[in-house]
Write a structure and sequence with these properties.
Structural class of chain A: mainly alpha
Keywords (chains A, B): DNA-binding, Repressor, Transcription, Transcription regulation
CATH class of the largest domain in chain A: Mainly Alpha
Oligomer: homodimer
Largest sheet of chain A: none
Order of helices and strands of chain A: HHHHHHHHH
Radius of gyration of chain A: 18 Å
Number of helices of chain A: 9
Protein name (chains A, B): Transcriptional regulator, TetR family
GO molecular function, one term (chains A, B): DNA binding
Pfam families (chains A, B): TetR_C_6, TetR_N
Chain lengths: ~180, ~180
DNA sequence: CCCATAGTCGCACAGTTGTGCCACAATAGG
DNA sequence: CCTATTGTGGCACAACTGTGCGACTATGGG
């Protein structure tokens, strides 16, 4: 049996539960039902409930890394494409960011989740830093500003149910334009 | 008996529970213990559990409005002072923002909380808009950028346990400086 | 005095939570 | 054939959840 596929199945089920019903509903029985499994079968792959949360946020980080790695590193639009990966511009990314927001918020009071969320933050910051460098923007502190701006934009999109996030592109474009960078 | 004082007492207890133990622990019995009340007594002022969450996020909005209203409207530094009220620069504001983040995230899947969070967002946007106007910044979309930047900065401070948020002032100052505005 | 009202608290109930334990099926190696 | 491994699923348990209900005390008006 493919145990890794089972993990992915459960994790994606937990994502859907978080997005549709919120953290309160992230229970063993709800996840099992969403994944089409018996609660006891779920516990074979995930012995404890904490491990579901842990793997779920770790999966967000991995998915982000995969998407960024798929961008041609030498492309002149690498930076612009990468920054777009940090915005919830389609259903997939929106789902991931709803999950990372919910689990990230929970991580504030959950020692098990805290290091994972810190790693995710570090990854985003690193991407902003590299994007700045690729765009020839060297002002100190600019990467932090860019990270805060992008996370803030993503936050607002995710918090508003119907928002497709298209408008965030325009805001980001204007900001980069002011820095003397053209986006395509 | 002062029923309004009782409400405030319970709400602040719920804030502390959220900040210290997270949303999972926001239960009737935990709040009651934190407030020094018997669970049944709590239910006299708050008949249902939902009402605690609702009043808690509403209280955040009211506190923000009070703080902003206390700033001299004609002061030349009104905008700068107001923007600072949106950042978690001391324990009080940090607590409020931890609560608004936790409850705001929960509001995504909680129809009762959603309108309150929307109102809170609208208030912050309105403040950013007025701050832009007071600073003579008229570029369309700038208020949205400012709101995203500030919320993103606040988010990062709140998500990192030890962070005192002082660095966000520098980021914001640099951004406004680039727009031709000096901060004091 | 009596009585009504306001507020506090204990108890109980049905439902849900995470998890431990054990029985069962399938599959593969000998 | 027997046996071990891998995985599925059912059942039960203690703990916890929100909330309903009724008993209690204190206070103040008549």
């Amino acid at each position: 049996m493919d145990l890794q596929a089972r993990e992915r199945q459960v994790i994606e089920a937990s994502w859907r539960v978080i997005a549709r019903q919120g953290m309160r509903a992230l229970t063993v029985r709800n996840i099992a039902q969403e994944a089409g499994l018996a609660p006891s079968s779920l516990r074979y792959a995930f012995p404890t409930q904490d491990s579901v949360r842990e793997k779920s946020i770790r999966a967000v980080l991995e998915r982000l890394r995969e998407r960024v790695a798929a961008i041609a590193p030498d492309s002149p639009s690498w930076a612009w494409q990468t920054l777009q990966e940090l915005l919830p511009l389609d259903d997939e990314r929106r789902l991931e960011m709803e999950v990372s927001l919910a689990l990230g918020t929970a991580a504030v009071t959950d020692p098990l989740l805290a290091p994972l969320r810190a790693e995710l933050d570090a990854e985003v910051y690193s991407l902003c830093e590299r994007a700045c460098a690729a765009l020839g923007l060297e002002r100190p502190g600019l990467a932090r500003e860019l990270q805060a701006l992008i996370d803030g934009l993503a936050l607002h999109v995710v918090l508003v149910p119907g928002d497709d996030g298209r408008w965030t592109l325009e805001v980001l474009r204007l900001r980069l334009q002011e820095l003397g960078v053209a986006c395509d």
